[in-house]
Write a structure and sequence with these properties.
CATH class of the domain at 66-108 and 232-444 in chain A: Alpha Beta
Largest sheet of chain A: 7 strands, mixed
Number of strands of chain A: 15
Oligomer: homodimer
CATH topology of the domain at 66-108 and 232-444 in chain A: Rossmann fold
CATH architecture of the domain at 66-108 and 232-444 in chain A: 3-Layer(aba) Sandwich
Number of helices of chain A: 19
């Protein structure tokens, strides 16, 4: 009985999959935050290298992965895809559950799939320092790892609540040679403005992005690197779904349902987009679910509109699902999902009915994660646990109906640096947050008047 | 260029390799701690199930792995073997360095290779509760995982210094449903005796073993489970080396040198014994190095004699290299290597010149580990870092001589729960301990008068 589906190295993807030509309409162009006019490549050149800008706006169906990046991918890729026999049994479901496990990367999540190419293209453009933000620390550690590989410097603004909740993610970033600053900080004008309004601000991804972008925009030697949301970031993550397509072939199966958690959209797009491509091009029917936190319900409760990607209005304005760039989500343990916006490509796929979304309270997510850890062994990251909770819902539907559906989900990372969250859950001290309606309503009033 | 050598599942070992028939003489029988006479299977039956006792004394060359255990192994096995191209380059060595990575198991080390069969054989014998000790927490978490798989209870005595240094290993053990008690504790007579002499005792593996054995010996419903040292434990770990033999074939190479860290001997034996078998049976020459901490130099400075496996003299007396069962090693971060004794089979191999040993100070080990983390990405466990330091020594010899040696080492686990140790090293606060000569001399005076 095969449990683990391992691809030989010679079946690794050699190109990234670009969903843009397979979507019913092209994505709306980003707007310059100062003028409200469409932003051209030159508007982005202050903080990104031209190769990544070209990927950001590309409509080519496939983009070759440079050989040097393919070599580094091999440190952890192909990642395993496994059948969760023991979890299926514990759930008492007739569903077949497969999971792709991205936690085998050195940083413990899918994030190095894009941090490595981003660092590589910057290095190629002569840039030796990158600034970035991080929530739970998964992205910050992934970029620290990648910049270390290419002898570059790295400056990480870490959302303050996570900085204190997850000291060892910080240590990991230090070990890989990067500098970490808790955000909001007094090192930037954006940070100082937030602190003036609320010295106790727990921070948010939106605020940390402002700080990192400000540094890159005001320093010639520094570029900015983003761990999710943007088209080129999602593009790099499509190695996940492409491997799954080949691994599903090895398993002689095909998913009826594909599930991933969603914050900015990168691990979700990584697994889902290649399956959307198969659906669009070859009519292969598949239900795709994006699982988001009830405390930050961007896809299910946000509106589809133009908005800033950050709190200080320094990033381009993009069309996406948003809760308002002023919205600071409650301090849930899934720090990587605490983002007011959504990838424009994921939002567009949602608008066209190619995917659906559901919002989950964190205790339901931890319940699923603990059951998974006790049956399959792996301890999921709090972010990934949202996907697990959705899997449980579908598996229970199958139990009711007797349907033997095939479910594939992305286990985007491990929870080795999130044990305090498990301690809280197991001791009954983890709370769910009420839907933050008033805060979202207030934030919605500040959307930019464009488009 | 292949980086990672992945075995297909159908090439996984189906039997464990037993080194006993390949050794120049049979191991000395263990002695009953009360009488000093050879201990028969019945002496061990109070704390072990008969299947494991039979494995402990077996002279069969191969012992089949039950199918249910093979299935669970597939959750993380085969583990990858990789070529460390980037580290080789950073070292400037002509040596080819391969590493087997056991950190992909759910518990993050090689330990589940034996915790799963131990739990399974106990369950089969009708036992529903296991007691054990743990140093750094790697073994305790591995046994918690395994007992959880079979719906058994688990009680873990964790060496006090590690209990406080590594709170999240504790959380991991809790998550997998086990109870953890810092050792020495007041829950056993052995623990109370130690605390009476030294209320501030940091604990040691020898003390924690006494507590766990006492519980198993005095409770009918509870058996004892050991994470290293014993013959059957080393036997289970030989899946590592057997996979390496097949993976070396895939790499079209064969090691000149095999290196692993050594505490009680289990990850070392796991990778080394199958290569000793090749040497003995087919004359394949290979140098094998056991890397131990300078603060607990059992193989390099201990004597080969009969001694107790624990501080309270509850375990059988075995012939091994020992620093004396009263010896409490300094509180180095490699908690899993803080053991006064050594596996009798590893000791016997050392006596017959089949392996050599070297002792390394912890700063040299962390220096190698940081360089490895910055080139290959993976963060090694402090225990494993001893193997890395030995690799660096051999790689530097090759650099001097121009020799293109092929080195294979066992990266027995990751350091995700040891970041505080890396913080200490990176901030310059990690100290090396002087060779604890006086403490060892004193402990040596208390060896049992037998044999």
């Amino acid at each position: 009985m095969a449990t683990k589906y391992l691809l030989p190295e010679d079946r690794l993807p050699t190109a990234w999959y670009n969903i843009v030509p397979d979507l019913p309409e092209p994505p709306a162009p980003p707007l310059n935050p100062a003028t409200g006019q469409p932003a051209g490549p030159e508007d982005l050149a202050a903080i990104f290298p031209m190769d990544l800008i070209m990927q950001e706006v590309s409509a080519e169906p496939r983009i070759d992965i440079p050989e040097e990046i393919q070599e580094i991918y091999k440190l952890w890729r192909p990642t395993p895809m496994l059948r969760a026999y023991r979890w299926e049994k514990a759930l008492g479901t007739p569903a077949k559950i497969f999971y792709k496990y991205e936690g085998v990367s050195p940083a413990g999540s899918h994030k190095p799939n894009t941090s490595v190419p981003q660092a590589w293209y910057n290095k190629k453009a002569g840039i030796n320092k990158l600034s970035t933000e991080t929530g739970a620390g998964q992205w910050g550690s992934a970029l620290a790892l990648a910049t270390q590989f290419f002898d570059m410097e790295c400056l990480v603004y870490m959302v303050k609540v996570s900085y204190h909740q997850k000291p060892y993610r910080r240590s990991m970033i230090h070990l890989w040679g990067a500098e970490v600053i808790p955000s909001p900080s007094d090192t930037t004008a954006s940070g100082r403005a937030i602190l003036a309004g609320d010295p106790e601000s727990p921070g948010s991804l939106g605020i940390a992005i402002s700080e990192a972008v400000e540094i890159a925009a005001t320093r010639d030697d520094t570029n900015y690197s983003l761990g999710s949301v943007l088209n080129h970031v999602l593009l790099h993550q499509t190695v996940i779904g492409q491997e799954c397509l080949a691994q599903m072939e090895l398993a002689d199966a095909y998913p009826d349902v594909v599930i991933a958690c969603v914050g900015g959209g990168s691990n979700f797009a990584g697994i889902a987009f290649p399956f959307i491509g198969e659906k669009v091009k070859h009519g292969k029917d598949v239900r795709i679910i994006a699982s988001e936190p009830a405390a930050c319900p961007t896809l299910t409760r946000g509106i589809y509109a133009f908005d800033y990607g950050d709190t200080a209005k320094l990033t381009p304005i993009v069309k996406m699902h948003t809760l308002g760039h002023d919205f600071v989500p409650p301090g849930i343990h899934a720090g990587g999902l605490r983002y007011h916006g959504m990838s424009p490509l994921v939002s567009l796929a949602k608008e066209h009915g190619l995917i659906e979304a559901e919002a989950l309270p964190q205790t339901e997510c931890f319940e699923a994660a603990v059951q998974f850890a006790r049956t399959e062994g792996i301890i999921p990251a709090p972010e990934s646990s949202h996907a697990l909770a959705s899997v449980v819902r579908v598996a229970n539907e199958c139990k009711e109906s007797g349907d033997e559906k095939t479910i594939l989900f992305n286990l985007s990372g491990h929870g080795h640096f999130d044990m305090a969250a498990y301690d809280a859950y197991l001791s009954g001290n983890l709370e769910d947050y009420a839907y933050p309606e008033e805060k979202i309503k207030a934030a919605m009033k500040n959307l930019p008047k464009v488009g």
